[in-house]
Design brief:
The protein is 38% helix and 12% strand. The chain is globular and about 45 Å long. The chain contains eight helices and nine strands. The protein is of the alpha/beta class. Strand 8, helix 7 and strand 9 form a beta-alpha-beta unit.
Length: 227
């Protein structure tokens, strides 16, 4: 997921009521949302995950994740993960891909540093999405390394705990290279997440985990996407 709100003409957004329906549908279809800790234990310690284990993730740190998504997640008793680019925490400027929307009067604000703790207290674990929200493949190698390492250190300082997962910006196979996987591993992360569509299994590369992008799908489409 990215945005959860009811602003018309707002791409990459799932309306709040539909997000609620999708969360209910997960249970109806037999999926079981799990926390990041369980996924880490699965890949590091070979601990089994329950049948239908599902990790709910959000990218980019939109404030509507706190205002709209968190109450729905609490209602259903689901944990989740939010990957934030630290360069936009508490910033009034829009994310790079939001600039055209902002110019048209559609504002999608991001959370600030204090709100990260509020999200964590509600069961949404904060993890890393770099600094500038630019694909690491578009950066010089030293700059990519800084994005991967410094963002982790800053988040750990703010949260007072290890930050263990990194989500590649955009996350297609063109947006990162093998050297970036090595940088993520060397920085001390335990997991890396892409946006390549698909499920994961015990033998998946834990630094190239796949995810399903979720849109405002009708119930049947949502069911088919997850199969």
């Amino acid at each position: 997921y990215h945005k959860v709100n009811d602003i018309p003409g707002n791409p990459v957004t799932v309306p709040t009521s539909l997000f609620d329906e999708q969360m209910a549908q997960l249970r109806e279809l037999g999926y079981r949302p799990v926390g990041l800790e369980e996924v880490i234990a699965h890949y590091l310690e070979a601990k089994p995950l329950p049948p239908g284990a599902t990790l709910i993730t959000f990218d980019d740190g939109y404030r509507d994740n706190l205002e709209n998504a968190l109450p729905v997640l609490k209602k259903h008793g689901y944990p989740a993960v939010l990957f934030v680019p630290i360069g936009y925490l508490g910033e009034s400027r829009p994310l790079p891909h939001e600039e055209r929307l902002a110019a048209a009067g559609i504002r999608n604000r991001t959370v600030d540093w204090g709100e990260l703790r509020e999200l964590e207290a509600g069961g949404v674990r904060i993890e890393c999405h770099g600094i500038s929200h630019r694909p690491v493949a578009d950066l010089a190698l030293d700059e990519a390394a800084r994005e991967i390492v410094v963002s982790k250190l800053r988040l750990e300082e703010a949260l007072g705990r290890p930050v263990q997962a990194f989500a590649f910006v955009k996350g297609s196979e063109a947006d990162y290279l093998p050297v970036h996987l090595s940088l993520v591993r060397q920085a001390g992360y335990e997991l890396g997440f892409t946006s390549v569509s698909g499920a994961n299994g015990p033998r998946s590369d834990r630094f190239r985990l796949r995810r399903y992008n979720v849109e405002p799908y009708p119930a049947r489409t949502f069911e088919l996407v997850l199969k």
